[in-house]
Design brief:
The structure is a single chain. Helices cover 32% and strands 30% of the residues. By secondary structure, it is an alpha/beta fold. The chain has one domain (5-238): Rossmann fold (3-Layer(aba) Sandwich), CATH 3.40.50.1580. The chain has a five-stranded mixed barrel with strand order 5-9-8-6-10, surrounded by four helices. Strand 2 (23-30) and strand 3 form a beta hairpin. It is globular and about 50 Å long. It starts with a strand and ends with a helix. The relative contact order is 0.22.
């Protein structure tokens, strides 16, 4: 197997700051996606925008692990904060992921992915530790990230943008240990589990998944989350 790290974001803006950092980049197009292969700080990487939602994330991850034989995967981008004390500008590294909209009751327990016997898929401990350490380094060195808290725990995913207080309150009541909510991570986790490949997921909190979640979202992604993603990934590669 080649030693090539896949770096994935759902939106162009989430990976845009990393694209100019690639040395010797070339682009291949598969499954309607542009895969940028090159070297990042001396490491072979492949950078791609997967698109929004679980199906888009699963398709991209399967192509990365099969067609490109990626040895590990890091997913980066934004999420809505759920956990108490998880604020806008904080960073969440996933220890496990769950699909909050998966429900095959009464055939299977709520949230369990049918025929797998599990609802939660653990992120790779090694990559998670590197992302936590890199996030702390960013918070210490970056003036704009000063004061950002680093959280490590459950991230939940679903095919809807959680943008009302009622929805986020329901998620907190049902999954009290969930730190953040987004739309791709649990699908990435399930596919990586199927392939037996390690992965890590790091998210910058862009909103509190409430009625104000849509405000200034695009500007936050471009001005804050994109450079955070770039710096965290590069710091993790250096460890």
């Amino acid at each position: 197997m080649t030693t090539r790290l896949a770096i994935v974001g759902a939106m162009h803006e989430e990976i845009a700051a990393l694209r100019p950092c690639l040395d010797g980049a070339r682009t291949e197009r598969r499954a309607g996606r542009e895969f940028h292969l090159g070297r990042l700080d001396g490491h072979d990487v492949i950078l791609v925008r997967c698109g929004i939602g679980k199906v888009a994330a699963a398709t991209t991850t399967a192509v990365l692990l099969d067609a490109f034989d990626a040895s590990a995967l890091v997913f980066t981008g934004v999420a809505g904060g759920l956990g108490e004390g998880v604020r806008v500008g904080d960073i969440v590294v996933a220890s496990a992921l769950l699909q909050h909209d998966m429900n095959a009751e009464p055939l299977f327990p709520r949230w369990e992915v049918p025929l797998t016997g599990r609802a939660r898929f653990d992120a790779d401990a090694g990559w998670s530790a590197r992302l936590v350490q890199a996030s702390h380094a960013l918070a210490a060195a970056n003036l704009h990230a000063h004061g950002a808290a680093i959280h490590h725990g459950l991230v939940v995913s679903g095919d809807r943008f959680v943008a009302t207080r009622a929805e986020s309150d329901q998620l907190r009541a049902a999954l009290s240990d969930a730190l953040a909510v987004e739309m791709e991570g649990a699908a990435v986790a399930q596919v990586c589990h199927d392939f037996g490949r390690p992965f890590g997921i790091v998210r910058t909190i862009s909103d509190r998944a409430d009625d104000a979640a849509h405000g200034d979202f695009q500007r936050f992604v471009c001005d804050v989350a994109a450079p955070y993603s770039r710096d965290i990934v590069r710091a993790a590669l250096a460890l």
